[in-house]
Amino acid sequence: QVRLVESGGGPVQAGNSLRLSCGADDRAFRGYAMGWFRQATGKEYEFLASINWNGASITYADSVKGRFTILRDNVYNTGYLYMDDLKPGDTAVYFCALSPRGESSDRSRYTIWGPGTQVTVSS
């Protein structure tokens, strides 16, 4: 089974940008849709963005549309989430996940998850 590891999180001031990476250890990565979710302390998981296996179809949550960009590079088995104009409300643990059933905002369709990376945005 493919394993994922997120990286690129950390502390950042409001208004700045971060790039999160999601590295997979197997080229089977390219056969899955990929999604990004986040979970703030004491809150439910929140869908952010998804991308199908070849990047031809992308969906964003309204809360991040225009600020976040999802990309993938199937040559390097890596996904990305570019986050611009970060706000304190973006503070959360960010997860990438893979879905064998196409892209979706439904967390239950994602069967492979990384351990997450913390993003902390200060004002």
Topology:
Blueprint: E1 4-7, E2 10-13, E3 18-24, E4 33-39, E5 45-51, E6 58-60, E7 68-73, E8 78-83, E9 92-99, E10 112-113, E11 117-122
Parallel strand pairs: 2-11
Antiparallel strand pairs: 1-3, 3-8, 4-5, 4-9, 5-6, 7-8, 9-10, 9-11
H/E series, N to C?
EEEEEEEEEEE
What proportion of the residues form beta strands (DSSP E)? Answer: over 45%
Name the overall outline: globular
How many helices?
A: 0
Q: What is the share of helical residues?
A: under 10%
Mean pLDDT metric: 97
Per DSSP E runs of 2 or more residues, the count of β-strands stands at 11
Poorly predicted parts: none
Radius of gyration: 13 Å
Helix and strand content put the structural class at mainly beta
Could you tell me how far the N terminus lies from the C terminus, measured between alpha carbons in angstroms?
40 Å
Largest sheet properties: 7 strands, mixed
